[in-house]
Amino acid sequence: MMALCRNAFARDLRPYTLLGIVIVIVGVIDHGTGFFFRGATLFSIMQIFATYGLVSLAVGLSLLVREFDISVAGMVSLAGAVAVLAGARDPWLGVGLALLVGLVGGAAQGLIITRLGLGSVGVTLGGLLSFQGLTYVLTGNQSISFDHVELALALNAPIGVVLSVRSMIVIAAFVLAAVVMQFSRVGRDILATGGDRRASTMAGVNTGGIVFGVFAASGLLCALSGVVLSYGLAAASPAALSDVLAPAAAGAIIGGVSVVGGRGRPAGIAAGVLVLCVLRSGLNAAGASADMLDIATGLVLLLIAVLDAPELARRLTEWRLHRRGA
Hints:
The chain contains 14 helices and 2 strands, in the order ααααααβαααααβααα. By secondary structure, it is an all-alpha fold. It has one domain: ABC transporter involved in vitamin B12 uptake, BtuC (Orthogonal Bundle). Strands 1-2 form a two-stranded antiparallel sheet.
């Protein structure tokens, strides 16, 4: 029994175990009333997943290479504003320009980090403030409407009760990321760079290029999230998802991404985000206060910290010994 529990909470299986446990707990709280296990609640879960999923994937990718992209919230807001303003006549033009802004913004941060050897926290904090400032300038510090209401309705229309075009776009992005991580050399190099950057460099991995590419991908994912959100709401706001960093990072960590890099998979990140989505929808359906979500999320993260403590201590010790011997 102990071996079974240990395997269930191993890093690769932990996100799915936690998701199953959370579903059972929410089902017990539901008391058979049917508020949780119904199509409307499941649809709500996937809509929340569509809101936070891509940002959590972006943060998770940066953690995989032992960096941390703080600028995600600023890029979501900026890309959403660009999409709405540029897409007033042609929505596809807005999509293209917003994705270009995300790619350039993420690549610029990656270039500064790799070329100047600066820490990602300081650089992306500057990026966050810059992106938010640009958003305030573009929007005039107010919400701007998107006239293509029919597009917003189409993006949010239920497909098969549970899904929508918004959620399917996010799922497709996760599938693509999973394929790249699992079957390409780039995926292996990302994990190697996060695991031991110096050893990876000696083995011939272009670690600078990998970090640069990860931040470019992060910007692109956040821009896509901003586009999907703004088009789905038929509006853009300079404060859109301003508090997204905490749940995005929580989703990645719950999804099995190591805070010291080199461990984690996109499928696990998706499961981690779903844990938070189920908690939010389940607690809302049960009539719990908003504070309960923060408490529940904190307890889950505390459990993960306890489970990860031995491995984290071992890897930090190895890293310190490696630096002393270098």
